[in-house]
Structures are given as C-alpha cells and as structure tokens.
Specification:
Blueprint (H helix, E strand, L loop, with lengths): L1 E2 L26 E6 L4 H11 L10 E6 L5 H14 L4 E7 L2 H5 L4 E4 L11 H22 L5 E4 L4 H10 L9 E3 L2 H15 L6 E2 L2 E3 L7 E3 L4 E2 L2 E2 H5 L2 H5 L1 H7 L1 H9 L5 H15 L8 E6 L11 E9 L2 E4 L7 H23 L2
Parallel strand pairs: 2-3, 2-5, 3-4, 5-6, 6-7
Antiparallel strand pairs: 1-4, 8-11, 9-10, 11-12, 13-14, 14-15
Helix pairs in contact: 1-11, 4-5, 4-12, 5-12
C-alpha cells in the first residue's frame, strides 16, 4: 500500500458533530474512509471531501482509500492525483488494499465498495457476494475504527448491506450505521424545484421512505416550496402521484441509459450532504432522509434499515415521530417494507 500520511495510531481523538454553533477543533484532521475508492463514485467523492464539501471549509482531513487488490494500480493513480491537486485541507492519504490499515482510527466511513449486479446474475447471487463483503468489513471497522465512527453505506443493496454491517459489528452503536437515501431525497428536491421554477433551497421537508430501490416511496405530503405546501405549489396531484414518483424511483436507470454509466457525481455529492447534515449541521432543514435501523416507528419492523425522515443534533440522528400518514402512503410504505424484509431473509440465507 501507499502511505503518505502520519501513522493513524499517532493521531489524537477528534471530536466531530454539531457543536451548537461552536467551531470544530480545527487543528486535528478528521479521518475519512472511502471504500471502493478507485471506482466512479470514489473518484468523484475523494476531491469533494478534500475540498471541504463534507465537513466544511476549515476542517482538515486525511483520506483513507481502500480497494481490492486488482484495483491497486488504479488506486495509486487516484492517490497521485489527490497529491497533485494540492488541496489546502488535505493533510494526508492512506491508500491500501488492507482493510485493517484502511479502517484504523477513522472518524467517517463511506462504504462505496460492493459487487455490482452483472448481466445474467440472479438477485441472490449478488446478495451473496455483498453479504460476504460487508460481513468482512464489519469486523475490520469494529476492531479498528474509532468508537464514534459514523458509517454510510452506498453500495447496493445499500439498506441490506447496512443491515449486515450492523449485524456483524455488534459492539458498534446502532446509531453509527446508515445507508444512503439522500440521493433519492435530493432527486426529489431537484424535480420539485424544476417543476416550480424555484431554487433548490426553497424546497424542504420531502421524505424518502423505505428501500433505496424502485420500491422506495418519495413522499411530498409534508414538504414545502418557499413555505407553501408542495401540493399547493405544484397544483398537479396527478403529476405528484404518478410521473414524479416514477421519475425519482427510476432516475438511476435513466442516468445509466443516458451515460452508459451509473450516477457518480450526484451520488458523491449526496454522500457529502448526508454526512455534513449528520455530523456538522442540519443547515436549517426541516428534516432529511436517512436509511437507519428502525425502532418500530410507523409500523416498520424493528432492526431493519429503512429510510425515514430524520433530524440530527450533536452528531446523532433521530427518527421524526408522529407524522400523519394517509392511506395511500401507508400502502406504499408497506410495499417497500415488504421488499426489505424479503432482502433481509435472502441475505441471512446466504450466510
């Protein structure tokens, strides 16, 4: 491996999180792990983190980049480019194929690495590959990351990969593991803003319920555009209940059809948003969508990783409770719930 930073074990503890307006400890760099770092999303994410889009414009970082051995040479190229960019906030790069080295003392873990579904593969085959990957990385994270580590799983099936990570890292806090549905959340914001001719910042309170898959439920019933309800602002329930939902659900496939490659730029940007709103500040948002371990809220099976509206404070997420759910929404939430339960059983059968 390449190591161009101080030894991880030499670093003092770094406290990160929403400090209610107080500054971070600006002297100590935060260690950010990116698995699958030579892949498309990793290549887009690493410079965003190094430029301060994840943790803010004054927070130094050390990037821990992990890849599988066949991608070691490509990873070396990524590390060279990061050095060449001379990012002011980047204090070092640990580029390695050793999970224990990669996980050593990390504060943030962005889990992009996974086995993609290929032509002719059954869902169970893909699930089996990813269960093995996340079972292994769970052991390394639990043993070597900081106790306060915050993890976001991006590789599909993201919710179920996060469930496996949680299952095989039992000493880690249940509040430290999440899966990314912020990309779907941001897709909702972009579609509504475009439809209304409004800035993205005017759209708030949208929710992604359930799985990061085509069964997810993009819910606008609690959202606003410049303070006006989304349904009132758009004034087209047929669109909001039909084309809008399918556009968000199938956006990833549409991008693959257009680019011949999967979403990378938008996924990487959403990872930054997810972590920043979790550990730095909510930035005035009503709530954000995060796939987290269910506590039984809204009738969702306790323990499965399901996307809920969340609020974050002092580096901790909480599921927003007590939202009014209409009958249509209940049905759509249950459909994605059912898929996650099926994925969970499929994953456990692979062990």
């Amino acid at each position: 491996w390449i190591r161009s930073s101080p030894d991880p074990g030499d670093q003092k503890s770094v406290k990160i999180g929403n400090q209610n307006g107080k500054q971070f400890n600006r002297m100590e760099p935060v260690r950010v792990l990116i698995t699958g770092a030579a892949g498309q999303i990793g290549y887009a994410l690493a410079p965003m983190v190094a430029r301060g889009l994840m943790l803010g414009p004054n927070q130094p970082v050390i990037l821990h980049l992990l890849e599988i051995p066949p991608a070691a040479t490509a990873l070396e190229g990524v590390a060279m480019e990061l050095t060449d960019a001379a990012f002011p906030l980047l204090r070092g790069v640990v580029a390695t194929t050793d999970p224990e080295v990669a996980c050593k003392d990390v504060d943030i873990a962005c889990m992009l690495g996974g086995f993609p579904r290929k032509a002719g593969m059954e869902r169970k085959d893909v699930m089996s590959k990813n269960v093995a990957i996340y079972k292994a990385i769970a052991t390394s994270l639990e043993a070597h990351a900081k106790a306060s580590v915050k993890c976001v799983v991006v590789a599909n099936p993201a919710n179920t990969n996060a469930y496996i990570l949680k299952k095989y890292a039992p000493k880690m806090s249940i509040k430290s593991i999440s899966a990314l549905t912020r990309l779907d959340h941001n897709r909702m914001v972009g579609q509504i803003a475009e439809k209304c001719g409004a800035p993205n910042t005017d759209v708030d309170g949208v929710i992604v319920w359930g799985n990061h898959s085509s069964t997810q439920y993009p819910d606008v019933n609690h959202g606003t555009v410049a303070g006006k309800s989304i349904r009132e602002a758009v004034n087209d329930d047929e669109y909001l209940n039909g084309e809008f939902v399918t556009t968000v659900q199938k956006r990833g496939a549409a991008i693959i059809a257009a680019r011949k490659l999967s979403s990378a730029l938008s996924a990487a940007s959403s990872v930054c948003d997810h972590i920043r709103n979790w550990v730095v500040s909510m930035e005035g948002k009503k709530y954000v969508s995060m796939a987290v371990a269910s506590d039984g809220s809204y009738g969702i099976t306790e323990g499965i990783v399901y996307s809920f509206p969340c609020v974050c404070k002092n580096g901790e997420w909480e599921i927003v409770k007590g939202l009014e759910i209409d009958d249509r929404s209940k049905q759509l939430m249950e459909a994605t719930h059912k898929e996650l339960l099926e994925e969970k059983e499929m994953a456990l059968a692979c062990l």
